[in-house]
Design brief:
about 230 residues, alpha/beta, TIM Barrel, 8-stranded parallel β-sheet, 8 helices, binds D-xylitol-5-phosphate, binds zinc ion
Length: about 230
Amino acid sequence: MPAGARRLTLAPSLLSADFADLSGAIRAAEAGGADALHLDVMDGHFVPNISFGPALVRAVRARTSLPLDVHLMIERPAQYADAFAKAGGTTLVFHVEASDAPAEAVRAILATGAKVGAALRPDTNFEHVVSLLSKLDQVLVMSVHPGFSGQKFLPDVLPKVSAARAALDAIGSTADLSVDGGITVETIGLAAECGATFFVCGNSVFNSAPVSDNLKNLRRAVDEGARRAVR
Ligand code: DX5
Ligand code: ZN
């Protein structure tokens, strides 16, 4: 598919929202034109932070019809696939580093009826997902070390985004190519230029400025980056 024809998805990450007013955050994201919501599940083992589990995904599901992109930063992801799918996750994204048998995790997630994504930490080589690629609905290239919002984008991951773009195109895959971590108006265009199509934005969406202004600025910057990719 020509780069210019690809659908670009902005997915605000609720990790940066006010947990005491998630309904307000969801409404603001919808009103601002978000295409999906990103939910960061952290278990305190795979990453050194703890966030939330299926109960919160279910509560969000009850308040929006946007696709829910569930980022599983947890050990033994296959074991929890059913719970997150039943809670209403649209896509369950597991980390290849978290599973001894990533192909098994892909199967377990697809068996629930959810879509499946595979995520790579910044220091994990793209080769780790190559054998899974044809089965995936999403490849997620982390652009920070997972665990916390508000970190600085790591530009060293951009060649991996380009490699993923080339590999997906080579097999005719229309899977989303996601970037997550430090995505701002300054960095989103760089990722789009390398062929990313799905952009997780935490602190650049939920901050002291209006969410709709933030999303508008991110949309403009991502469209510009995608145009540079076409040239
Ligand atoms: C980090 C999470 C991200 C985080 C992004 O481990 O996976 O989704 O919420 O937040 P920002 O955009 O602020 O880096
Ligand atoms: Zn995330």
